[in-house]
Amino acid sequence: MKKRGVKRGKAVTVALVQMACGPNPAANLAKAMERIRQAARQGARIVCLQELFRSRYFCQTENDAHFSLAESIPGPTTRALAKAAAAAKVAVIGSVFERRGEGLYHNTAVVFDARGRLVGKNRKMHIPDDPCYYEKFYFTPGDAKPGFQVHALAQAKVGTLVCWDQWFPEAARLLALQGAQMLFYPTAIGWHFRDGPAIRRSQTEAWELIQRSHAVANGCFVCAVNRVGREGHLTFWGGSFVADPFGQVIAKASSHDEQMLLAACDLGKIDYTRRHWPFLRDRRVDAYGGLSQRYLEKD
Amino acid sequence: MKKRGVKRGKAVTVALVQMACGPNPAANLAKAMERIRQAARQGARIVCLQELFRSRYFCQTENDAHFSLAESIPGPTTRALAKAAAAAKVAVIGSVFERRGEGLYHNTAVVFDARGRLVGKNRKMHIPDDPCYYEKFYFTPGDAKPGFQVHALAQAKVGTLVCWDQWFPEAARLLALQGAQMLFYPTAIGWHFRDGPAIRRSQTEAWELIQRSHAVANGCFVCAVNRVGREGHLTFWGGSFVADPFGQVIAKASSHDEQMLLAACDLGKIDYTRRHWPFLRDRRVDAYGGLSQRYLEKD
């Protein structure tokens, strides 16, 4: 395919905070607050934290005691995030275990602008359930109308999706169709201690690949933020990354160390890429109705 | 994620015929027929040819003389394919420039069973238009109802999509939802002679990545078949490959040589992979209605 040079546009520096989490939520929260300040000092305009950064990944077991980790929005964590965003003058994407009501809990991404205002939230839509990831026990799936919603920051239009949402092309597409320029995926995914090297490699490959494919299919930036470190049976594989609108990885973090991953994202690349790879032009919207079905057996 | 060993299931050997095409359609057709025989001798049960294998890739210019390359179905090419399939006792997936009626032309994938019967066809749904790929001039987009249809061969349920269709997650998903176990993508894609090495690399990467992502998202096999060789301004990049249901490449062809790529596809891997990565279980079909829209601006 014949391609011309990129015309430079507005660049937005993002920071992805890849952390290990200890047993003390207050300490994890304090660490995240400090990382937000650091990111701002290093020039970030949008800082994204990993999924459920305030605690260890408690979904490895089904234990009703863990519900006490949840909090309402607004609540202590979102107030802290708002304060950190305003103080550092950066937009912040966080993740909270949300108590929406008695017996009603969500895994929720929250977006604050650089003045500390809550611009929007997205409750995790696709909930996994797999040994060591017993999330269906804890989290009610999101029920917003529409189900996937974009948030306009001064820096960019952003879409947030949470971990398991990352495996579903539908979710990324629906945000891109709303004008999302950057998709953020706060994540907690790791290897089971029994997984051998080949399985580990195939898992991290598939995980990076599916998210890069959302960048390609939609011509937008994709930022994935994962935790690191051993917790119980799982070793979280880090590997946070930023992909450009043609799926090229422009920044990538370690698989085992804490890291602040910075990347300058030239938003001019979005229109440029889509002009050369005009998938949005050619979608067959007349033929996609079956996507709202579970399965399409022939009778 | 904790994973157990794969239970072996039914293995189907596929052959992807990666060819260079000369100026003489009869010679290209004869070469393809010979490759089908070879593939069968080597144990293939399904043979897939590249997009528009009977001619050079004529869409590099808009020239109405090229319409004379088209033929009806049935026509000489599909009769030859049917005969080759029956003689070699293999299923064959071919690609024809179809003349459906006066002034009505399609880019059509055709599927023959091992007895040479036409099991089905898929007219290319998404039509590109880009310098050197002036396909909107030649091809009317497919209009089947439903738009994407699976074909049951004795070997496997197969879905066929054609080249540009490969960039659209919607297409792969709609075939998987109909039970497709293997997706075949006959393709003609290459580098423009002005493209530098970095652009070439990013293009082949994105091309492989988006198709592997369909394997991951849907837990099925993906087989991409591309041509090789220089034709006019384009050098077709070959690189035909087979990906397993977790997106791992299990066979990959050269970027510059003709090749018969064989791969044994264990269909037992499909259910195995989906049990461990149960994306079909968790799709939010209640929230995907917007996918049938062109764009979702807020008012």
How does this structure look, described?
The structure is a homodimer of 299-residue chains. Chain A is of the alpha/beta class and 299 residues long. The first copy, chain A, has one domain: Nitrilase/N-carbamoyl-D-aminoacid amidohydrolase (4-Layer Sandwich). Chain A contains seven helices and 15 strands. Chain A has helices at 25-41, 76-88, 135-138, 169-176, 197-218, 268-276, 279-282, and strands spanning 11-18, 46-49, 91-101, 104-112, 118-123, 150-152, 157-160, 182-187, 190-192, 221-226, 228-231, 234-237, 241-243, 249-252, 259-266. A six-stranded mixed β-sheet of chain A has the order 5-4-3-2-1-15. In chain A, strand 13 and strand 14 (249-252) form a beta hairpin. In chain A, helix 1 (25-41) packs parallel to helix 2 and helix 4 (169-176) packs parallel to helix 5 (197-218). The longest helix of chain A is centred in the C-terminal third of the chain and has 22 residues, at 197-218. Chain A is globular and about 50 Å long. Chain A starts with 10 loop residues before the first strand and ends in a 17-residue tail after the last helix. Chains A and B meet through helix 4, helix 5 and helix 7 of A and helix 4, helix 5 and helix 7 of B.
